[in-house]
Design goal:
Elements: E1 8-11, H1 16-29, E2 34-40, H2 51-61, E3 64-69, H3 73-84, H4 98-105
Parallel strand pairs: 1-2, 2-3
InterPro entries: Rossmann-like_a/b/a_fold (IPR014729)
Protein name: Thil AANH domain-containing protein
Pfam family, one: tRNA_Me_trans
Length: 106
């Protein structure tokens, strides 16, 4: 679309893969074209479960960051419900929790 600024929404775990995705997209979209979403999970998760690590990375790179806090309130209840009764169970890939990934995409 002419004149329309493109943006990318990146699910940012804080690990090398998601950081690399941000940097590759930055080459195409610029810093303002990147919006990162980090899910603070009750039991950790990913290699960088410390949200401050993710905050520092996004601040240093100039990315807008959205944090979904799943450690309390409505998001905690939804997350625990999904953990207790997973619909798809576990896959065989490197990050095997299919239900966790679907939870984040919803």
């Amino acid at each position: 679309m002419p004149g329309k600024k493109r943006k990318a929404l990146v699910l940012l775990s804080g690990g090398l893969d998601s950081r690399l995705v941000c940097k590759l997209l930055e080459d195409q979209l610029g810093k303002k074209g990147i919006e990162a979403v980090f899910f603070a999970l009750p039991f950790g998760g990913g290699c960088c479960s410390d949200r401050f690590c993710v905050i520092r990375f996004c601040q240093a790179q100039g990315y807008r960051l959205h944090i979904v806090d799943c450690t309390k309130g409505m998001w905690f209840r939804k997350y625990m419900s999904m953990i207790k009764s997973p619909q798809f169970q576990r896959g065989t890939a490197m990050n095997p929790c299919i239900d966790c990934h679907l939870f984040m995409l919803k």
